[in-house]
Specification:
Layout lengths: L13 E11 L9 H5 L10 E4 L2 E5 L5 E6 L9 H17 L3 E4 L9 H4 L8 H11 L4 H4 L3 E7 L2 H15 L4 H4 L4 E2 L2 E2 L5 H8 L19 H16 L10 H4 L4 E4 L4 E8 L4 H20 L5 H4 L4 H14 L4 E2 L2 H5 L8 E2 H12 L5 H13 L2 H9 L5 H17 L8
Antiparallel strand pairs: 1-4, 1-5, 1-6, 2-3, 3-4, 6-10, 7-8, 9-10, 11-12
Helix pairs in contact: 2-11, 6-11, 11-15, 11-16
């Protein structure tokens, strides 16, 4: 039985998880060596997770991704860009011994997942191999999608309902500030946020797992369990005959409710070029959600009336065009206090930022102002590389991104 009363109330605590690819420093080919970043235990065996003070590290499904995260829920993300950066430098020092490094952005631009995917070989292998058997994990949607997860606390149905209503409204706008994945297979994918596009399709064998990416309009545990968890459990049952897959983990919507730990986890954010940018966007998400729940833009009950399919349609636009998408849903714009028929997504973000920036740390507000002026990382990469860049040019530009990660600086295309 799930307890609806969690230790932390709404807005009390948050946490961030950052996913990075491990690549060869010269060629940028992926290397399945997350084990080096995690280290060994006292018996000399590689571990699947470890902690360095306030920072936790863990593996993912595939062996070429390292996750760096808050080891415990925190009261504020202020200063966490620097904390994460120190951990990135430590990981890069370890990887330098094998000529490797961490690479940012949400999709590797030329990885071949069919030949380069290696599942994590140590703990929990039976779960990973079950996923592989059911869905075939040798594809971009499993092996090539790095994101920044933001976890926000809640306790009880009332707080969950307020948070979930705000989260559903925010999700369609996320690619318009955070898209960083324009390239797949060595060329422009046709989407500024290719990660979200492939994320939509990677579990189509069991459609209820991802749904419309935008979660259903449910605002308490009983409804969430009936409309989402029970459907997922029923639909996966014919494939998961050994009952290895937990419905909390199976649920792959753009935001998932973790009633087992009193948190909503937002999964739609592409990882950026440096931790200062990731933390700034996480602070912006949190401030926007607080404003929505508090009625800064509209009467909060109105948020619960937003139609899932209409929200999904807006997400499809921002997935394709990021900040250049034109939002022509007047009802959606009304949720952010806009009384007009259409608005560009970047202009909507600027409107939101002006309303909430006083509750964002000074350093993150300055970073966000630069991002809003520059545009998304995806658009910046496209300006530098175009539709069909040569392999050498891709390696050159993404090596510059790796330097941004190592130095904790924003990316700017060379003129």
């Amino acid at each position: 039985m799930i307890s609806l009363k969690a230790p932390w109330h709404l807005w009390d605590r948050c946490g961030v998880e950052l996913e990075y690819m491990i690549v060869d420093k010269k060629t940028l080919k992926v290397l399945p060596r997350a084990d080096i970043g995690l280290g060994k235990d006292e018996h000399g065996d590689f571990v699947s997770e470890t902690e360095h003070g306030p920072v936790g590290l863990s593996n993912e499904l595939v062996a070429h991704v390292l996750e760096i995260k808050c080891a415990e829920p925190v009261a504020s993300l202020k200063g966490w860009g620097n904390i994460f950066h120190k951990e990135i430098l430590l990981a890069n020092r370890k990887y330098e011994e094998i000529g490797a490094m961490l690479l940012p952005t949400a999709c590797h631009p030329f990885m071949d997942p069919l030949t380069e995917t290696h599942l994590w070989p140590y703990e929990s292998t039976e779960i990973y191999h079950t996923y592989d058997r059911i869905f075939n994990c040798k594809g971009h949607g499993w092996a090539n999608l790095q994101s920044t997860h933001l976890n926000l606390s809640f306790s009880g149905d009332e707080e969950f309902g307020a948070l979930h209503a705000a989260v559903r409204a925010l999700l369609p706008l996320i690619p318009a500030i955070a898209a960083s994945s324009p390239y797949l297979d060595g060329s422009y994918s046709g989407y500024k946020d290719a990660r979200i596009e492939i994320y939509r399709h990677n579990q189509e064998r069991v459609p209820s797992i991802t749904g419309a990416v935008i979660p259903e309009a449910v605002f308490n545990y009983a409804d969430y369990d009936r409309e989402i968890f029970q459907k997922v459990e029923r639909d996966i049952a014919p494939f998961d005959t050994e009952h290895l897959l937990n419905h909390f983990f199976l649920n792959s919507r753009g935001a998932i409710a973790r009633f087992d730990r009193g948190a909503v986890e937002i999964r739609l954010v592409d990882i950026q070029e440096c931790p200062d940018a990731d933390v700034a966007i996480a602070e912006l998400e949190t401030a926007t959600l607080k404003a929505l729940a508090a009625g800064t833009f509209c009467d909060p009950p109105f948020l619960r009336t937003l139609d899932t399919q209409k929200l999904a349609a807006i997400l499809a636009k921002t997935t394709a065009l990021a900040e250049d998408a034109v939002i022509d849903d007047a009802g959606y714009l009304r949720a952010f206090g806009i009384i007009q028929e259409t608005m560009r997504a970047d202009d909507l973000w600027k409107h939101i930022f002006e309303a909430v920036k006083s509750s964002i740390s000074q350093a993150s507000a300055a970073t966000l102002a630069k991002i809003l002026e520059r545009g998304t990382l995806s658009t910046s990469l496209y300006k530098a590389l175009g539709e069909n860049p040569g392999h050498e040019l891709i390696v050159y530009e993404y090596a510059r991104l790796a330097k941004c990660l190592a130095q904790n600086t924003l990316y700017e295309p060379e003129l």
